[in-house]
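Why do we care about 3D structure at all? Because function follows from shape, and shape follows, mostly, from sequence. That is the central idea of this module. The next example makes it concrete: a single protein chain, its amino acid sequence, and then its structure expressed as tokens.
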Amino acid sequence: MKRSDLFWRLRAWGLAAGLLAVPVIAGGCSVPKLSSPFGAGKEDISAPPSDQLTAIAQGEPGSGTLPGGMGANCPQVVAWPRERLVTIYQPGHVGDTLFAVHRGEITKMSRECQFHGGRVVVKYGFAGRVQLGPKGHPGPVSLPVSVRAAGPGQVTLASDRMNVSTTVPAGAPVGYFSMVREVSFPIQVGTRPEDYKIFVAFERNHPNAG
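And the structure:
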């Protein structure tokens, strides 16, 4: 096992225990049309609220699956292993675990779908945590995340960018974050909803990210 993997696994085992799963919800409420493919979410879709996702992330040790990427009859929400993790290092020490400032990790995802004619509205959420490294200090942390909705053949249908923020409190070297968003796009004739994916990833252009 690599030294970096061992460091974060030991820290995760010491911070949390137990594994909770986010259920995949199929809603039936009507949804107004969106002027933009991405939105901040509508109250008339009963998806898991962000505080519930945060609570679930607090019980996740970081080694389980991401249930939002599973299930049929709804576009998947996907965070590939490398893209759901990002570590920020002190300048000049990228890649050296002993100089890690903090590490962001997406641990839970969920989504629900509504169908209207030839369109699908997906309300998706993701949650995770920020752990302090050897060179980290309590306080606010903000990390950029990019989202891309793609159809068959990996054709991009919509893209979005946001920052997830948390505050790592003194005496507890981990903070939690969550985000709930919406995306709407047409379903092509001859394709299935599960042929579409929403990719969530930490951006790597953050200073000193590795």
